Structure formats: structure tokens, C-alpha cells
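[audit] Reproducing an earlier prediction to check determinism. Same input, same settings, fresh worker. If the C-alpha cells differ from the archived copy the diff job will pick it up downstream; this log only records the rerun itself.
[audit] input (352 residues):
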Amino acid sequence: MKIYKNLNENENGSNWIKSISFYCYTIPKCCNKAKAIFVIDNSEEVGLGHLTRSLEVIGSYIELTGIIDIIIALPKPIKKEIQSLFCDELGNTPYLLRVGKLFDKVNIDLVKFIFIDSYKNNIQTEIYIRDNCNAQIYCFEDLHERPHSTETVIFHPSPQVKLSGPKIWGGLDFISVRNRIQKNIQIRKVSKGEKIKVLVYLSAAEIFNDLTQEIISYIRIGKHAHQIEIKLVGDFSKENKDKITEIIDAYKWADLCIGSCGVSFWERISICLPSIYFELADNQKQVMKYATKENIGFPIIGNNETIINLIGERVEKLAKNPDHIEKESIKLFNNRPSLIGARKIATIISET
């Protein structure tokens, strides 16, 4: 199985925004007065990370400016099980106005800016937007080497860089975690004789469903499997009963998480949940470097052939030494960053 995903393999030189139809959501039931458009990738290969962090920016922007005339454009419709994300940040689930090309039925002269959160964004896309309107373009960019238009304002939500405008901003200060999650800080402790509650949550991207199941199956045949209780988040398998639908409930339940270096990495840190983690895609390299440098949690560095075995070995070690979980949780509590970058991004946008 190919675990690692090279995001640069996709959409080379193509104009993503021009080529597909979007599910366009609005907060009020109209789009001819839209002041801003947020284009967010929630496709099968991406999952919910882009959506989560961009909704925080939208919520902060609305709070700062009072402007609610916003279009949220997604390549996939909002599923019922993730509507709570919108309610958390916006206080409401946006209304599905239409499905179609991005600029259909929009009074583009009123749009002040377009915010893009997708690894498929590139110069061709930005030129296309410029040809259609005079709106300022902002974007999240996880891959620092990718070129952009000189007019685009870029936000690098990376702990490995420190950039301070006016066109490029980056650093730990631009990373966010939902307030609803951050309120659930708790020190994890496994008492002698108790089972370790292990949550497996690699990604909401459907391409990693099989990998999730392989990891769970491997742990369940381990020497210390009787000391471990496993659950996963979401509906990865219709037959699997060991799942928790709501991510916050899952975080509260767990003593330990097996996950990636995506947006959920910062969620786990914010609530002091120790984790076994590894890279799933090349946009997670900077987080992995930061985490290993700061001695955070239990990193796994391996290749497609060894990664599952290495995860299993780490779980076995923690099963024999469960006190390491509490020690790591306390360390996370003492060193957790603020993770309120969405407000900083919204402030920069509102003042530009």
C-alpha cells in the first residue's frame, strides 16, 4: 500500500477552479451581494483539514468585520456528519445556493477578495481569477517551494518558518485549532491494570481508509492486545462497531492517538493528547521536522513497507510502560502553543 502522498503529483499546471463545478454555500440566501469568496478543497484525497482551518478564518473574519455576505465554494457537498464544523465556527450551516462554475451568477465587481485553500492552486488559477475580477487573492500554502502570482498574499501555516508580510506571512502564529476543541484540555493517565484507550485517526480523506483498518488489525494481533482498547473516528467501515462519530467525543475518550502530521496534529497538542504520528503527505514535512525537533510525542519514521510494523512496536512499548503516556501529556500541557492563527489571518485580511 502506498502510504505517503506526493501532492505535487496532482494537477500540474492545470486550472483547478476553471475546470470543475463547485457547491456554493452562502450564509444569507443570496450571492449577488457577496463581498468575499472562500474556495476550499474538501475532496476525497484531502479530507477535512483545509475545511477546518478555513472555517476558522471565515468565523474570525465575520466576528471582526460583521460582514456575512460570503460564498463558500467546495468541490464536494457538505455531509450531514460534518455540518457541526460550520455551526462551531459560523453559528450556522450555510445555505446551498447553487452548483456550478465559481463565477456563475456572482456580481464579481462587489467581491473584495478570494481566499483559496487547496494544494491544487497555482499560478494558472490565480491568473484566471485576475482575468475575471479585481479581487485580492489570499491563499493557504503548505508547500513553500510552489510559485504564486506576485499579487497573491500567502499564508504559510508552518512552525518551521517565520515570515512577516506584506505578501508572505508564516509561522506558528498562523496555525489554529477550533475553540470548541481547545476547551477540552485534559491530562491523560492510565492507571495500573487499566486498558490503554487508543484512538486511530489518520485523516478524514477516504484514500486512507484501508490504511486505518490495517493499523487496527495489526495492533489487535499484538502481544499486548489485551491491554488495549481501540476506536476510530467516522464511518470508515460499515461493519466496524468500534467507532466514534464526533471527533471531540473521540478526543475526550482517548489516552493515546495514532495520527498524522496534518491539522489534527495541532488539535491533539492543544488538548494534551499524546500521539504516535507520521507523515501522510508531503505538506506535512515541516510539521514532522518541528515535532521531532521539539521532542513531541512518539514519531514514526519509516517507509511503506515498515510503517505499520513500527506503529505496532510503539504501541507495544507503551502498553508495557503506560506511565509514559501521562508524562507526555503533562509535557504537552506545559508547552502547548496558543494556536489562534485564524484571528491573526482575519485581521490581516480585514486591514488590507
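[audit] rerun output stored. Observation attached for the diff report: The domain at 182-335 is CATH 3.40.50.2000 (Rossmann fold).
[audit] end
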